[in-house]
Known about the structure:
Blueprint: H1 2-34, H2 43-62, E1 66-67, E2 70-71, H3 72-91, H4 96-99, H5 111-139, H6 149-176, H7 179-194, H8 209-212, H9 216-229, H10 239-266
Antiparallel strand pairs: 1-2
Amino acid sequence: MESVVGNWQKAxxxxxxxxxxxxxxxxxxxxxxxxxxxxxxxxxxxxPLLFCTAVxxxxxxxxxxxxxxxxxxPFLMTGYMPILLMRHMISHTLNTVKANxxxxxxxxxSILHLYFARLLLEFVGVTLAFFVVFVVLVVYGVAEPPPRPxxxxxxxxxxxxxxxxxxxxxxxxxxxxxxxxxxxSALTYIxxxxxGMFFMAAWIPDKYRPLALKVPFLNCIEMIRAGFFGDFVxxxxxxxxxxxxxxxxxxxxxILLSFLRARVEVE
Length: 267
């Protein structure tokens, strides 16, 4: 019994140490990226907030208030914020090691800490922006509280998990092969038309829908919209399929990070 308690205490202490390291790296990243003047760290929330607001205002000005019977603004919000999350997480993993190589001289800091700090920072920032936009829309009567919030949370977390795995893969490869960085911008732009920002799976012809749902991001956005609009819309998604993507991409990403760590140690 004492050994079990001792092992539990060691494990909890290890978790706290890793959490403290990641928290410190997040604060350092905020100070480095946004500085300490003016609103400083609030830009991690303000940047995605401004992008989302601008997109919704622009589309509201040029389109009708409804899209296939769905309110346009909530529809755009549930499509654009996930895209913003993916783009921010993937793009900010580039040059992570190069920009923070000096920190690796501290024995307690690992490459995994560097990546997790950046990814968690982007995830928290865009999530807060999503929440703020949603609250404002509800207050002004443009949107309504989601009838199935569990699906919203689940879809958002699964989206973050899959994007984390892909980000680890892209970030590792960009450190080892310089040309990968050149393709990342194109990759994030390709995500816009195929991930479900401007459409729902139900709008796709039956014969093409299974192919479209091979994209894991579309499943996540469908899940989020199922939570937001409830039975008013027909949605298609597979939780098991997205989980499989999350496991596989995270596994491959961690393997690539181990190769990258060995390469950095040799150099």
